[in-house]
Amino acid sequence: QKDPDYLKLWLDSFVSSYEQFLDVDFEKLPTRVDDIPPGISLLPDNILQVLRLQLLQCVQKMSDGLEEQQQALSLLLVKFFIILCRNLANVEEIGMCSYINHVITMTTLYIQQLKSKTKEKELADQTPIEEFVRHALAFCESLYDPYRNWRQRIAGCFLSTVEKSRQKYKPASLTVEFVPFFYQCFQESEHLKESLKCCLLHLFGAIVAGGQRNALQAVSPATMEVLMRVLADCDSWDDRNPEEVSRKAELTLKCLTEVVHILLTSSSDQRQVETSTILENYFKLLNSDHSALPNPRRCRQWESRFIALQIQMLNTITAMLDCTDRPVLQAIFLNSNCFEHLIRLLQNCKVFQGRLDCLAVSTIQALTAVMHKSPAAKEVFKERIGYAHIYEVLKSLGQPSRELLEELMNMAVEGDHMAVGILGISNVQPLLLLIQWLPELESHDLQIFISNWLRRICCINRQSRATCVNANMVIRIIKTLNSHSVLHCTCAENLIALLGSLGSQSMGSEELLQLIRLLRTEEPKQAHPYVVPVMRAILAMARKQGMASALQYFNLYHSMAGIAVPSIHKWPGSAFSFNAWLCLDQDRVDPSTTNKSGKRKQLY
């Protein structure tokens, strides 16, 4: 305390000994070190009080400008605190002291300097100031995310709720200075380096991922306004590095995903912001009208960036819905009119030229995520939007790519379309859309690819055939076959084979009549090209293959399916018996139940 030079020498020696713990790069996973820094009880007596006074002196001298030695001392102090916090037993005590408030005060003033654009700033070396800011933000991370949950999340390692509950040490309580600090940093920040903005976003994500108590304090109207403003700024056209801007958008979206997940686990009295409010602003930005552009020369550059941002935002919807409380979040999305927003996005994007197909693919992925395993969401989509409407919208974008068609296949099976035999039909409507689209496809390769896949997925078992028959797929196939002049012969043969398989399940008189009418030609003596394959299909329908089975039956596949009978008011004697045949299909495995204890149907 009496000898500042000796104190600095001691701090230098301490920091040098534990320098491996100064992993201040948020983009990297923390390095594994066998040793740990000492506990506070092993440090010299009164050292924390001495360091607090030294830090306070630095804060007081900030207004007049710190000398080079004082700048070096303040950085050394922050490094010392980071190292101490890497012994997680020290985190709570360090967090209770006033160090963090002093560090935030200094960081605020330094960031104000970095945000200003003056000749003095351009001439001066900003490296020491930037270094202090980066270390200060890393110190905050050490306090509020001691187990580095956020860094692991960014690297693609997701911790389960059970794993997080096993973390022995809790993060320090968030200082009330954080929200004003975070908000102030992004005010008039156009001259602040993108890399420093990314560090600030990393810190926000770390606080949210570090623990629920701090997360709910940090997620406020002010911080949500900042995130939305940062996101809106990512489509600007200027001289900034596009990679840094894209990374900033990616981090902002990951922060929003983390925020949505933490809000789902909280009660309404704990939240400062509702998920529905976040989604309302999110969709408003996604569909924002940027028609007023500065000049034609910049339009292409802006368009590319804006569509790239929209694609990132659409992919984030899928990430948001990948959570344990998915049904709850799906209901919130439905109440936010998400379907209307997503379809409007496709309708409005026709005015742009460029990456429209990527945008359409991401939109279909988002729609699939909202409807995933939710019969209610599928019904809402059919009522509010309808597949006829989405077909017209997609068709207006021009010839589809294979990726877009594959995404519609994924929507039908709610998974990977290549997993035929593992995944069955979860949503039959996209299949009807694909059948309708076949004549419009100019690529014969795509026609053959789609029709071959449809034949496999629709005929894979009794359940799939019944689903397709109930959706009137036979009539849809016949209407498509009427356009035989634009259909490749292999595609037509696949569709007729599919029709035969479905007809063996069920074929009505109207459907049979339409099929026979299909074979009519204008020239009486000229045979229709479909005569032979259609006759084979009719023979397949008439021919019984495999074991005899009932033509009418109850389908109890759904987990909530059952048969309810009226209560018996008067029993005919002391008991009664009930007889029924059961057909147990075992040729379809649901991957969602393979790792769990499967549900068993019960007869009462």
TrEMBL record:
Source organism (scientific name): Pterocles gutturalis (yellow-throated sandgrouse)
Ranges for domain Neurobeachin alpha-solenoid region: 298-541
Record-level GO cellular component terms: cytosol; membrane
Coiled coil spans: none
Protein name, per record: Neurobeachin-like 1
A GO BP annotation: intracellular protein localization
Pfam family, one: Neurobeachin
One Gene Ontology MF term: protein kinase binding
Signal peptide region: none
Keyword annotations from UniProtKB, A to Z: WD repeat
